[in-house]
Design brief:
The chain is of the alpha+beta class. The chain has three helices and three strands. Strands 1-3-2 form a three-stranded antiparallel sheet. A hairpin with a 2-residue loop joins strand 2 and strand 3. Helix 1 crosses helix 2.
Length: about 80
């Protein structure tokens, strides 16, 4: 008889490519390190901390860009 482990309740992050490092976000936004850390510090860009490492989910970067575009369009 084969037993199966229960599925994880939340499987939103399935691959390592879905988490970006700060340098990857810097490159995508063409911003400096301090500017990206300011976005993280002020809660404009969501991130998670794994040990001492900061990781930004790709969906958080997409949401940030979408929000900024909407703000620019409304101005």
């Amino acid at each position: 008889m084969t037993t199966h482990a229960p599925a994880a309740p939340h499987q939103a992050l399935r691959t390592p490519e879905e988490l970006l490092t700060v340098p990857q976000v810097m490159a995508r936004l063409q911003l400096g390190r301090s500017a990206v850390y300011d976005l993280l510090r002020f809660g404009q860009l969501a991130s998670i901390t794994l040990g001492r490492a900061r990781r930004i989910p790709t969906h958080a970067l997409t949401d940030f860009i979408r929000t900024r575009l909407e703000q620019e369009a409304a101005a």
